[in-house]
Design goal:
With 129 residues, this protein is mainly alpha-helical. Helices cover 67% and strands 0% of the residues. It has helices at 15-27, 31-36, 40-67, 80-118. The two termini are 32 Å apart.
Length: 129
């Protein structure tokens, strides 16, 4: 089996192929777009991988902060607004990365809808033998 990053030529897809591209975009944003011949799939996949890496990297300090006790010493933070501010400082980058992932997923889904609308509609169903 050969793997290639070369973009496949765009052609008219059947409904079944278009739904397969839609499903592939749900599994990994950009993969269905590439299978359908849309070059934007490269950017969608790059955005998804950037979001995944960003989420993992930015969650490490959050976990370290939480496992260290997160201000559990008595009298450390008596003010609830200070506690919320500290929590926000810890979760803002992981949340931003998750948001970037959702943007890439929505981008891939809009491309999937475009693929479905351009798919040829089968006039005659296949014959059952």
């Amino acid at each position: 089996m050969k793997g290639s990053l070369k973009l496949r030529a765009r052609r008219s897809l059947s409904r079944a192929e278009a739904w397969a591209c839609f499903t592939a975009n749900l599994a990994l944003a950009g993969s269905g777009s590439l299978a359908a011949g849309y070059a934007v799939g490269y950017w969608q996949m790059a955005t998804v991988f950037l979001a995944m890496i960003g989420t993992v990297v930015s969650s490490i300090p959050l976990l370290q902060w939480k496992l260290s006790g997160a201000g559990a010493s008595p009298g450390a933070m008596d003010d609830p607004s200070q506690q919320l501010l500290e929590l926000w400082r810890q979760v803002r980058w992981p949340l931003a990365s998750i948001g970037l992932y959702l943007v890439a997923l929505l981008w891939a889904l809009t491309t999937s809808v475009r693929i479905l609308t351009h798919a040829t509609k089968d006039q005659v169903p296949p014959r059952i033998r």
